């Protein structure tokens, strides 16, 4: 069945739930027609056709008995892109080429939608995803940031450890992919660095790492920015901080999410920060210190927010739908 | 096995320990 009305394309994957459903529901209530595209289902279940000639070009895409064409798409929610999932029957020696061609074809499809409103544009997401760029811009807009060292030099890491009085954490700039086949990525969560760890710091020569001073915590904040609107969830650090340094780890009991009001000054800086990246959406992490200071950690341009909508009833899906239709 | 980068030690710690809706729990 070919959808007839203006369409909002939801770019996601087959494992997504809750947030994707809430946004689709909010769009439907506002009279728009959501079309969910599970990127990992291309090319085996999603069918895409693109025509180009000197007078025009157009794409059609068919999935789950529905089809849409490029000119129908008025807006795009860039939730997540997963790798094409190919079946085991495909000869292994052709797998990489099939994945590469499929991704290039999808890139062409995204390009055909450049006239639509994107939340957010892929190039802006890519630009904003570098954590070191984030720290620079956060500092420029006036956020407090942790003292940070990025190095592949063992001696520099040891000196920094002394500089922060032995209160140091480490992290990486990117996710580590555990299994392309299972399409799950996993992360090295923020880890405490002990002095004995640094005896082995010469192995930094193979790969640099990010080191930061460990910030004392009263609360951890997940701040969700949607087109000028700000939604905040807070976790009390004393529930888990004695043993853990990263609340995002599976198995870490985080207690209940709580409402939190950011000071006006922090909100102004947040809006300036997001403006510098040209992003309509961002999921940011802050630490509120015992002395009342808000310390910026990072922004994820496609970060999670479902827990805040579910537990705090924050209308984030509705705000995303508004941003898509504005 | 090959030599391992510095971050590998923290991955091992994570494995020894850690693969958010409290109301679900």
UniProtKB/TrEMBL annotation, chain A:
Nucleotide-binding keyword on record: yes
One Pfam entry name: ATPgraspMvdD
One Gene Ontology biological process: SOS response
Gene Ontology CC annotation, any one: cytoplasm
Record keywords, A-Z: ATP-binding, Nucleotide-binding
Matches recorded under InterPro entries: ATP-grasp, ATP_grasp_MvdC, MvdD-like_ATPgrasp
Molecular function per GO: ATP binding; metal ion binding; ribosomal S6-glutamic acid ligase activity
UniProt-recorded name of the protein: MvdC family ATP-grasp ribosomal peptide maturase
